[in-house]
Amino acid sequence: MTYIDDLVEEYKGIINDYIKSGNEDQLAAKAHDFSEKAIDLDISPDEMVALHIELISAIPLTSYEDIKASLNVLQEIMIRFGFTYKDYKAMLNKMERHDQEMDVASSLQETMLKTEIPAIENVEIGAISVPARKVSGDYFNIIEHSDGKLTFAVADVIGKGIPAAIAMSMLKFGMDLTSASNPPSKSLKRLNELVEKNVNKNMFVTMFYGLYDFKDQSLCFSSAGHEPVYLYHYEDDEFEELDGKGLVLGVMKDTEYEEVSSRLEDNDMLFIYTDGVSELRKHDGTFINMDDIKEMIREARDQHPQDIVQYIYEALTRMRNQNYKDDLTMFIIKNKCSG
């Protein structure tokens, strides 16, 4: 028996029960429940009337009072059905407008936030950013400076839709307008002021902001509430967790950010990610262990960073519980220059 067959039998039962009892309150309650089920099965008002006519022909209603009672049932159903159907159509229209908004936001991101990974001698970079829906809350940017330094950032906007896309565009242009390789702490302070002044008060941004010097392979970075990053030391086959302390962007105007320094020896890699990686849920509902990610990096350590992030992403996709999807971004910078 199909859902439609069940619904027909239920409707027949409502008619028979009302004919026997004449209970208006009971009819109203049953009509409400029935109309919601009918809407879920995408039954239109016209189809509802046709169903009633077909049932009346099948049910042996012998008296005028029985026929009148059946019409009362239809009337009550249609009243409830009409309100529910109206709400249903309004919901569909709202969803359609939302989809259109998401299309606009997605197009905005694709046009304004596209970041090319530069080809740089002695440095290899790999990045992957996959949205959970049409519009991503994650973002990364790379800027090569004329003084032999490289600025790179990974951000996670706490907010969705067009406002999030606009916020990320603002961050990108805020970074791109700076031609000089400013210290990360100073750059984050300026971006924080930009976000605090121009972005919705309910929207915040976490960001890792790094500066790499090609000449001496030195790294300095600041963090605005972002996930800790991992520096993989190739020679020792060990990971070092690097975590700069700092408030997320957009909370307090005069926030100061600490700066952390390190160095990338030959074949060392810096692994940056968003919480879509660290908070990924597996099939059993448990969170992924970052030790699993580290092991994947070890397994693929001799490959190009782009191949490494792709390898990790494919592994995570197989492990991930599809009911818990989030934006996911990974970024690796690898030193290929012997210091």
Describe the protein's architecture and organization.
This protein folds into two domains: 3-105, Methyltransferase, Methionine Synthase (B12-binding Domains), Chain A, domain 1 (Orthogonal Bundle), CATH 1.10.1240; 115-335, Phosphatase 2c, domain 1 (4-Layer Sandwich). The radius of gyration is 30 Å and the shape is elongated. The chain has helices spanning 3-21, 24-40, 45-58, 64-112, 161-176, 184-198, 275-278, 290-299, 305-319, and strands spanning 123-130, 138-144, 149-158, 204-213, 218-224, 229-233, 238-242, 260-263, 269-273, 328-335. It is 47% helix and 20% strand. It has a five-stranded antiparallel beta sheet.
SS elements, strand count: 10
Structural class: alpha+beta
Uncertain spans, ≥5 residues at pLDDT below 50?
A: none
N-to-C span? 74 Å
Figure out the total of helices: 9
Q: Summarize the biggest pleated sheet.
A: 5 strands, antiparallel
Strand percentage, roughly?
15-25%
Q: What's the alpha carbon Rg, rounded to whole Å?
A: 30 Å
CATH superfamily descriptor of the largest domain = PPM-type phosphatase domain
